[in-house]
């Protein structure tokens, strides 16, 4: 059985005079066919729309695209300002957006630009193509995570983004690369 379709949105283009938008990106898993319905997930998305067309590089139209391909999906009835980089297109109901999660993180060394992380610190999270701020809370037994250390944190993001347990991400602190992490638990 195929994995459910998931594509990260990298760019948004308005097509022609009508209300057709092309969302471009890389398909992470599954496949999509012309006529399938996809859900726009993250940043307040949630609309379910049909795929009117699929374009590969060079504007070549195809009837189907699968994991690993960079494509553009033509979606009718979507207003260009309602979709943006950082959202994902997914099989309806297969992925949900969250503003909070628990994660295991590891900090880079000081030489690589990392600094200690404390509860309440505001970090810049890079999740797929989304870049958004969030606030971390360390476990109660830890006052600070020092460079090169690992720990468990709870993250509160400013906007909802498509998340899955086991998903990896990177983060910046004070404008510099600081570390990476893996989502360990999502609220239910």
3D structure, described in words:
The structure is a single chain. With 188 residues, the protein is mainly β. The protein is 0% helix and 57% strand. The chain folds into two domains: 6-90, Translation factors (Elongation Factor Tu (Ef-tu), domain 3, Beta Barrel), CATH 2.40.30.10; 96-185, Elongation Factor Tu (Ef-tu), domain 3 (Beta Barrel), CATH 2.40.30.10. The strands form four sheets. Strands 1, 2, 3, 5, 6, 7, 8, 10 and 11 form a nine-stranded antiparallel β-sheet that branches. It has a six-stranded antiparallel β-barrel with strand order 12-17-15-14-18-19. It is elongated and about 55 Å long. The model has no long low-confidence stretch (mean pLDDT 92).
Summarize the structure.
This protein is mostly beta strands.
> CATH architecture of the largest domain, please?
Beta Barrel
Mean pLDDT: 92
Domain unit count: 2
Q: Quick one: overall form?
A: elongated
Poorly predicted tracts of residues: none
Helix content: under 10%
Number of helices: 0
Element-level helix/strand string: EEEEEEEEEEEEEEEEEEE
The strand count comes to 19
What is the rounded Rg? Answer: 18 Å
Approximate strand percentage: over 45%
Q: According to CATH, what is the topology of the largest domain?
A: Elongation Factor Tu (Ef-tu), domain 3
CATH domain class name of the largest domain: Mainly Beta
By CATH, the superfamily of the largest domain comes out as Translation factors
Largest sheet: 9 strands, antiparallel
Query: Could you say which structural class the secondary elements and strand pairing correspond to?
Result: mainly beta
Straight-line distance between termini:
26 Å
InterPro entries: EF-Tu_GTPase (IPR050055), EFTu-like_2 (IPR004161), Transl_B-barrel_sf (IPR009000), Transl_elong_EF1A/Init_IF2_C (IPR009001), Transl_elong_EFTu/EF1A_C (IPR004160)
Pfam family, one: GTP_EFTU_D3
Keywords: Elongation factor, GTP-binding, Nucleotide-binding, Protein biosynthesis
Organism: Streptomyces abikoensis
């Amino acid at each position: 059985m195929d994995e459910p379709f998931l594509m990260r949105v990298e760019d948004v283009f308005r097509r022609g005079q009508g209300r057709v938008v092309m969302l471009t990106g890389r398909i992470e898993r599954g496949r999509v066919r012309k006529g399938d319905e996809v859900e726009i997930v993250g940043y307040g998305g949630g609309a379910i729309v049909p795929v009117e067309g699929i374009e590969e590089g060079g504007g070549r139209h195809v009837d189907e695209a699968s994991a690993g391909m960079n494509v553009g999906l033509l979606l009718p009835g979507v207003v260009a300002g309602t979709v943006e980089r950082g959202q994902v297109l997914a099989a309806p109901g297969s992925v949900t957006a969250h503003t909070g999660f628990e994660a295991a993180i590891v900090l880079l060394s000081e030489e690589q630009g990392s600094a200690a992380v404390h509860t309440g610190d505001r970090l810049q999270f890079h999740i797929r193509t989304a870049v958004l701020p969030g606030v971390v809370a360390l476990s109660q037994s830890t006052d600070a995570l020092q460079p090169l250390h690992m720990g468990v944190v709870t993250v509160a993001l400013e906007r909802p983004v498509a998340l899955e347990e086991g998903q990896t991400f990177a983060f910046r602190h004070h404008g510099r690369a600081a570390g990476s992490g893996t989502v360990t638990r999502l609220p239910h």
